[in-house]
Each structure stands twice: as C-alpha cells, then as structure tokens.
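Input structure tokens:
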C-alpha cells in the first residue's frame, strides 16, 4: 500500500518557481484553497520505502558537519533532508533509541 505525506503552506501569491522547486523533489500540488487574499497550498508526495519512519517529536541523533552527534526532536523529511524542531535541517539522522551513547562523539552508529 502506498503511503503519502502531506505538507501545507500559506502564501499571499502563487509563484510558479516555488511549485517547480517542490515538484523536482517529489512533491505535487494536491489542492488550493483560498481565503481572502491568501492561498492555502496542499502538497503531497509518495513516501519512499527506504526513507526513515520518524514521526514528529521522535527523539533522534543528527550528525553535525564536524562529525559529532547531537540529540534533537524530529519534525519532518523535506527536500531530501531531515528537519528537526529547532528549524535546522540535517543530512544524517538516526534513531536516538539504541544509539544514546553516541551523543557528543564521532563514533559510527550500531543501528540505523
């Protein structure tokens, strides 16, 4: 069964460039609602089987540029990056559970 992820965005004007950028990363425009002078855009994309199954507010570890692991709360997977609740995106993200001892180290994880 296919799984889909949805994203919502409120904009004041529709920009074709923005829609093209999202389309290149697998998002497609699913619907538009209007209210006054703003538009609510609804996007959806098929979740790939190899993507992590993190949910918002899951505890995760992210690897910073110098190789150290830091604990964060997960937000979403968007534009091929993991976004955390602090508003920063990360390329490498693993579950916190089973990897707690990696916090503050540069060691490789046992399980991903």
């Amino acid at each position: 069964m296919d799984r889909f992820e949805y994203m919502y965005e409120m904009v004041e004007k529709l920009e074709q460039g923005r829609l093209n950028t999202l389309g290149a990363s697998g998002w497609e425009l699913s619907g538009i609602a209007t209210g006054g002078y703003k538009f609510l855009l609804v996007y959806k994309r098929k979740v790939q089987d190899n993507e992590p199954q993190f949910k918002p507010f899951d505890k995760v570890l992210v690897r910073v540029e110098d190789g150290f692991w830091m604990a964060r709360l997960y937000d979403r997977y968007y534009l091929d990056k993991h976004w955390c609740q602090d508003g920063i995106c990360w390329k490498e993200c693993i579950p916190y559970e089973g990897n707690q001892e990696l916090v503050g180290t540069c060691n490789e994880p046992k399980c991903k």
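Residues 4-46 form one domain. The chain has two domains: 4-46, 59-102.
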